[in-house]
């Protein structure tokens, strides 16, 4: 209890937003429409074999770093990367289903493997129309591959999100 709480014999109230902000968290890597990972059309992701997380159908071409840390995995095609976060969360971001077959066409990288990045930093531009025209689903998966966080994993509710929204947090 703080000084004013003690004086007025009232415990400070903690809002859900304050708890979320203080908890180890992961930003939405792309703006769009968020859904639970179990809803994607790829069984490897939907079954959470690769980790738990969220899926976002992108409405914007910019893909950002969802955590601050080191880019420890980066496919040369640009369709997927992994960041070991300073906050104890290792995140994998995978743009599209089977988009590896595009061999980098429609993906413009702005980062290199081993590079340090800050949460919110633009790492990649995607051409959503090109991905769709090639016959692929641009849904972007954001997965917690590993973590050292206490508490349970929580996810943003389904619906519209921006890259400033928290996708996943531990509390």
Description:
- This protein has 171 residues and is mostly beta strands.
- The chain is built from four helices and 14 strands.
- It has helices spanning 3-7, 16-22, 43-46, 128-133, and strands at 25-27, 32-36, 52-58, 62-64, 69-74, 80-85, 89-97, 107-109, 116-117, 122-126, 137-147, 153-155, 159-161, 166-170.
- The strands form three sheets. The protein has an eight-stranded antiparallel beta sheet.
- A hairpin with a 5-residue loop joins strand 5 and strand 6 (80-85).
- The protein is globular.
Unreliable spans = 1-21
Enumerate the strands of the largest sheet in spatial order, edge to edge or round the barrel.
Answer: 9-5-6-7-11-3-2-13
Residue-averaged pLDDT, rounded? 90
Task: Return the string of H and E elements.
Answer: HHEEHEEEEEEEEHEEEE
Radius of gyration: 17 Å
The helix tally amounts to 4
Q: What amount of the residues lies in strands?
A: 35-45%
Helix content: 10-25%
- Structural class given helices, strands, pairing? mainly beta
| Total beta-strand segments | 14
Shape: globular
Give the terminus-to-terminus CA distance: 20 Å
The largest sheet is: 8 strands, antiparallel
Describe the structure in brief:
By secondary structure, the chain is mainly beta. The chain has helices at residues 3-7, 16-22, 43-46, 128-133; strands at 25-27, 32-36, 52-58, 62-64, 69-74, 80-85, 89-97, 107-109, 116-117, 122-126, 137-147, 153-155, 159-161, 166-170.
């Amino acid at each position: 209890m703080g000084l004013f709480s003690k004086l007025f014999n009232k415990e400070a109230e903690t809002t859900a937003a304050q708890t979320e902000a203080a908890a180890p968290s992961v930003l939405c890597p792309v703006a769009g429409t968020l859904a639970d990972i179990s809803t994607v059309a790829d069984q490897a992701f939907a079954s959470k074999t690769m980790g738990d997380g969220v899926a976002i159908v992108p409405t914007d071409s910019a893909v950002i770093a969802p955590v601050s840390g080191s880019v420890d995995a980066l496919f040369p095609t640009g369709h997927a990367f992994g960041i070991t976060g300073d906050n104890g969360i290792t995140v994998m971001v995978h743009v599209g289903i089977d988009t590896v077959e595009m061999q980098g066409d429609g993906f413009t990288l702005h980062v290199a493997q081993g590079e340090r990045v800050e949460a919110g930093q633009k790492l990649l531009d995607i051409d959503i129309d090109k991905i769709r025209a090639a016959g692929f689903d641009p849904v972007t998966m954001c997965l917690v591959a590993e973590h050292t966080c206490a508490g349970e994993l929580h996810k943003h509710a389904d619906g519209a999100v921006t890259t400033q929204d928290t996708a996943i947090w531990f509390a």
